[in-house]
Amino acid sequence: MSVNKTMTDVAYDFLSRHKKQIEFLKLWDEVIKQFSIPEDKKRRKKSQFYSELLLDTRFASFENNRWDLRNRHRFDETHVDTQDIAFDDDDDELDVIGLDLPKGDDAFDN
């Protein structure tokens, strides 16, 4: 393996060869094989690898922690429509009953 290859490059090559969605753990196993990651560093590297997959635009995540190359899928398969996300815009007052909050001159300013 080339010294300059990244973990995401290994995942890209692996997905390119398999031509289908792959579970994250199978991608991770391939990275471990290619890089010979020591046991004491696997946990940290696994987290780093997952983060890098999320940030790399070549990849798309799907249900059940499966990954594939984004260019194999339509836009609507790889993007979430944020118009359907409900936000809690209520500026409800906090329930302060039972809290020992300062009053009068010692009260917190809002």
Automatic annotation (TrEMBL):
Record InterPro entries: Asxl_HARE-HTH, RNAP_delta_N_dom_sf, RpoE
Cross-referenced PROSITE patterns: HTH_HARE (PS51913)
A Gene Ontology molecular function term of the record: nucleotidyltransferase activity
Entry keyword Amino-acid biosynthesis: no
Keywords in alphabetical order: DNA-directed RNA polymerase, Nucleotidyltransferase, Transcription, Transferase
GO process annotations (BP): DNA-templated transcription; regulation of DNA-templated transcription
A GO-annotated cellular component: DNA-directed RNA polymerase complex
HTH HARE-type domain segment(s): 5-72
Family of this protein: Belongs to the RpoE family.
Protein's name according to its UniProt entry: RNAP delta factor
